[in-house]
Amino acid sequence: MTTLVLLPGLDGTGDLFAPFVEALTGIDARVIAYPTDRPMSYAEHEACARDQLPRDEDYFLLAESFSGPVGISISATSPPGLRGLILCCTFASNPLPVFAPLAKIFGKLPAMRMPPALAAPWLYAGRASPELRRAHASAMARVSPKVLRARVSAVLGVDYQPLVQRVEVPILYLRAKADRLIPAAAGRVILDLRADVKLVEIDGPHFLLQTEPHACARSVEKFMEHELQPDPPLDVEQSLRVSKLSQEDLWDIDREILTQSARSFRKVARVVSQVMDKLSTRIPDVPDVYYAQRVRHLVEIGKLESQGDLHHMRYSEVRLPGQ
User: Fold this and answer.
1) N or C, which terminus of the chain has less Cβ within 10 Å?
2) Which residues contact 284 (CB under 8 A, 6 or more apart)?
3) Is 237 exposed, middle or buried (0-12, 13-18, 19+ CB in 10 A)?
4) Parent domain of 52
5) How far is it, in rounded angstroms, from Cα 42 to Cα 159?
6) pLDDT tens track for 130-145
């Protein structure tokens, strides 16, 4: 069973994931919680989350709202076992830049709780059940006002945009069409930074996982299932193109693969991408899956060492021998 690690929103308790977890099928959901009594920076939230990540198993990471920067920062370091990142109604940098000057001031305001009635229009947009309202109120009551204040201050001061381009795993972005809290522009920033991000828009408010759990679960399951598939074989057209490669072409490909490899492990997908870029003019129209096949060949003859399943270029790594 595939593991899905869930990073919570502003409350940090993880309690509000219950409807979404219940809607998942065939997935082992693991909820991460943050301390409710200790104000922390984004770096400290990340450290807390890292301590709770799975060991020695593959997993996907879902980061909701406040936790988006945490998920992005973790994923940018390519931790072992991470297969994909799912971002839900979230951001890589301050989603409300007009309030950026208040980042430091907000952290010094008197501790106080926002009445649920004031937060409701921004979070539920009239779609919350009585059970959800009670669950939200209960979760927020567990969290110190100082903690909530520190988290809002962190949001107003965060900028993890440079880290988005360092994420090597596939990314799914779930956007709520009726989100009144996080503007669509916050998601577009991520899409502009990574053109390969898969965007799924669902009709719902900011509390998307809570009000539309089944639609979200199906989108997440589809994304995970797709990313767990091995690299596809060459199709007929690709096979025809590859059959025309000369022995000199193959030598050039293998030499460039070794050149783009290093003494430390690198993702096969990264090596393949760099080789394709270098040889795009000299040997055009060769598909990435064929380069991945050449990587496997170099491993078989001892020119490279590997870890992970080489039939998944995104989730395997190679290095030059000799370490």
Assistant:
1) N
2) none
3) exposed
4) 2-228
5) 10
6) 899 999 999 999 999 9
